[in-house]
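Retro notes, item 3 of 5
We never archived the inputs for the guanosine-5'-monophosphate complex last cycle. Fixing that now. Sequence and ligand:
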Amino acid sequence: MPIDATLPYDDDNIFAKILRGEIPSNTVYEDDFAFAFEDINPQAEVHALVIPKGRYVSWDDFSAKASDAEIGGFVRAVGEVARAKGLVEPGYRLLANIGAHGGQEVPHLHVHIFGGQPLGPMILNR
Ligand code: 5GP
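Structure as it came back at the time:
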């Protein structure tokens, strides 16, 4: 079920538990600002998720409230993961779902990194 991205942060969400190490994940990258891991249900040959370490529900929450250091660190981490996965030369796609229309299911900001294959059209034909 898509979430309401305007709700307060829920410390019991699944990515908060992954960040705290309470639920296992296949870690791809970690630094002071971000954590990256493999998606449990990959939608492409490469499908990683990058999340900020701070308590942010969505891109909206993060872009409005995070510090410049958190935003800079997170954006750099997304680039680091893509480079580490060898995705720059063949190309890749970033996606952040926000709220109901975006189809966001986990209420902790995450950027999807897709790659390893041609990814087709950007969005389903209407
Ligand atoms: P959203 O629809 O919120 O943008 O994407 C949520 C993503 O989180 C989905 O691609 C889903 O497969 C992934 N996911 C949900 N639960 C878990 C989990 O427990 N572990 C991992 N690694 N990925 C998860």
